[in-house]
Amino acid sequence: xxxxxxxxxxxxPPIMSECGVRQGDPCGVLxxxxxxxxxxxxxxxxxxxxxxxxxxxDTFLLxxxxxxxxxxPALRELGSAIGLDVRPDKCxxxxxxxxxxxxxxxxxxxxxxxxxxxxxxTPVGTDAFIKxxxxxxxxxxxxxxxxxxxxxLQAQDKFTILRSSAQMRIAHLPRITSWxxxxxxxxxxxxxAAQATFAIMQRPEQADVRTGxxxxxxxxxxxxxxxxxxxxxxxxFLSAAAMAETTMRDGPQQFRPFAGPVGASLEQDWQALxxxxxAKALWPPxxxxxxxxxxxxxxxxxxxxxxxxxxxxxSDDLLVSFDTTTAAGRRGQTxxxxxxxxxxxxxxxxxxxxxxxxxxxxxxxxxxxxxxxxTQMPANATCVRCCCGQYMQAGDIDHAMTCRSxxxxxxxxxxxxxxxxxxxxxxxxxxxxxxxxxRILPGVQAAxxxxxxxxxxxxxxVLPGGLTVADISVVHPCAPSFVQAAxxxxxTAAARDRRKRTKYQxxxxxxxAFSPLSHETFGRIGKPxxxxxxxxxxxxxxxxxxxxxxxxxxxxxxxxxxLCRGNAVMYRRSLQVLARASGRAFMTGLPVPxxxxx
Length: 598
Description:
Helix content is 49%, strand content 8%. The protein has 21 helices and 12 strands. It has helices at residues 28-46, 65-81, 98-108, 127-150, 155-164, 173-176, 179-200, 207-214, 230-247, 263-277, 292-298, 302-321, 327-339, 342-349, 361-372, 399-402, 407-427, 491-504, 527-540, 548-574, 576-580; strands at residues 2-3, 15-16, 52-55, 58-61, 116-119, 122-125, 384-385, 391-392, 432-434, 459-463, 466-475, 513-520. The strands form 5 sheets. A 4-stranded mixed β-sheet has the order 9-10-11-12. A two-stranded antiparallel ribbon has the order 1-2. Strand 7 and strand 8 (391-392) form a beta hairpin.
């Protein structure tokens, strides 16, 4: 590897890294562990009463004071033999028996950790030490989130780092220690992440949104901001304990959680979780009692299984909480159903690695508000009458998506999606043309659209099975005309697909095929659109260079980003009438001039 020295004079050649492993190398941990394995096994044979336990360069000796005192010099010698030197200033001795630990530390010349120490990121020591360790981590993470918000990064970059990195830096604590000791610190970081999300979307924090949609997983229509309950923490700790028990079954008993002093409390926690999940058949009935089979097969997946159960329950509770006797309640329930799918969440998980996958700050913020049902209008906006005849209220969230005067913006959003679909087809090796005239296509006389001689489709695709006409639609599930259809997931897109097929479908078996490509404004895609996407992916993957799943995922990302851009245009245009009406002594001009101005 080439190592470039920062600040070196121009022309200085790079230093070639030819010895040792590099941080960041995916194989670095494996290479380092292979190098040290022989020495560690030799130590285990020569000093069985203080056998080393190691994770890469974190090595620990566990045993009585005399055994550890004898083993430490041997460990230093074995390390020196392969070019590894012990750093005494980074070592430490801990024991609940403070005097024994102090004597051992003095004998081998390393610091005495009176309250505890961190072993491979896990705090080991007194309750006060563990609490302080978690609080220090929380302080560091909260500070880094503040720094993140102050950086000149794009909103899309900030949220990606916040959701995928910053909030995850403390997620391991419930797996390694008691929730009673670290719960406050974990909740503080999660609250900070929620506050940062509202800051990114430039909206004041709303308690109902934070405890509701914001903290749901993406698959349930949320934003993926973490929230941990005590029960989920117990499931996490059980999963980690089971994996440690399986790994250390042949090791010292002190490292086996279910065989140690916490075994009884782990058994109680599992009994409670098993009882809660019995009604939903989360766990096998025979796994009620913890035995070796339960530890090896059931408990390692307890965290994932229980987290999915809790997320589904929270999603169901949120849907039920909407008052469907009111228009606002019906809109909220409809929005949640439309958001709860992979296609509607792709823009959140997309890394902005190319121009096609990047969103400007205004577009990304608009997409966040749109998904969460937050108004795009200023909080102090006055009630004004739009050109379409409807009055825009300060808390309006649907007018921009349904305004009849938004024809230009709707066309722009439509064209954005049209170009993306054609680009997807091109990557699959499929030729296409835009706005084909239908009257010259085979089978058009067997379609109702034949009555309109100037009728056009949106895209003509030359698929292996023949010609296919595609027509793109974007529909808003919360629009009054789709209220009934939106009662089921994907019902809005399905209703528009039926209308389009009734109009464009050809009854001639030898005629063109028709594919309605319906997109709900929250991102859900109709079934025919997904079928066409799979057809394109199958065609593209016929060779050896394209993976079908990857092709579909990339296409969904582009479509999701494109829809967010189009929606943002419509929201911005809808605010123009508010801007025109916000000036002092504003008077609407006449449609024709009344006098010449010299």
